Amino acid sequence: MKNIILIVFGMFFTIANAKFKLKLLEPSDGVLSSKFSYSLILSLPPCSLVGKNVDLAYNNTGTSESKALKSIFQVPNCRSKRDLISVTEKNNHFTLTKDLGYQVNNLINGTQYSFQYVVDTEESNILTASTRAALSYTQIDDGLPARSAAMVVITVLLSVAMFILLVGLIISLFYGNSGD
After folding, report:
1. Rounded to whole angstroms, how far apart are CA atoms 99 and 80?
2. Superfamily of domain 20-135
3. What is the pLDDT of residues 31-76, one digit of tens each?
4. Which of 49, 64, 135, 162 ranks highest by number of CB atoms within 10 Å?
5. What's the gap between Cα 68 and its chain centre?
């Protein structure tokens, strides 16, 4: 009898403290990349939480700055369209729409964050991910600012070829009209 009570209590305890899986989307999910310079694409909560509001809590692990986004979306029915990141494939007979994830925007370039969904009383696991580090376009070394010798040679050859074509066109027009 005590074993049954322990098993039932253990099941209720794990159900009460159950965490659903939060992850970055992968190429197998239908995206090329889920990491960008200023945003990340997170997976959606499971379909068992359909209709409930989703809150997202995240913090910058470098500065410990925390943000909480309340009611960012409702967990959509897995059989209907979602107003989230979606991919549409079309062929002659049907259209297939896959709902992929939620894109967190306005993040800082090259920074590590911790994310967690909260849906009613259920929480996701804590996901640690970082945005891509990208250089500002002003910091990119564009090399020699002058023209290379190859560019000069190609420009001269194309200019001479264009001159020859124009002279040939003028001559053909002149001889073509003088035959009548």
Report:
1. 9
2. Immunoglobulins (2.60.40.10)
3. 888 899 999 999 989 888 888 999 999 999 989 899 999 999 888 7
4. 49
5. 21
- Cβ burial of 34 (10 Å; 0-12, 13-18, 19+) is buried
pLDDT digits (tens, 9 = 90+) for 87-108: 666 677 666 666 678 999 999 9
Buried-exposed string 37-74: b where 16+ CB fall within 10 A, e elsewhere: eeebbbbbbeeebeeeebebbbbeeeeeeeeeeeeeeb
pLDDT at 14: 45
Q: For residue 24, what is the DSSP state?
A: B
Report the alpha-carbon distance of residue 118 to residue 124 in Å, rounded.
7
Return the residue matching tokens 């023209």.
Answer: 147
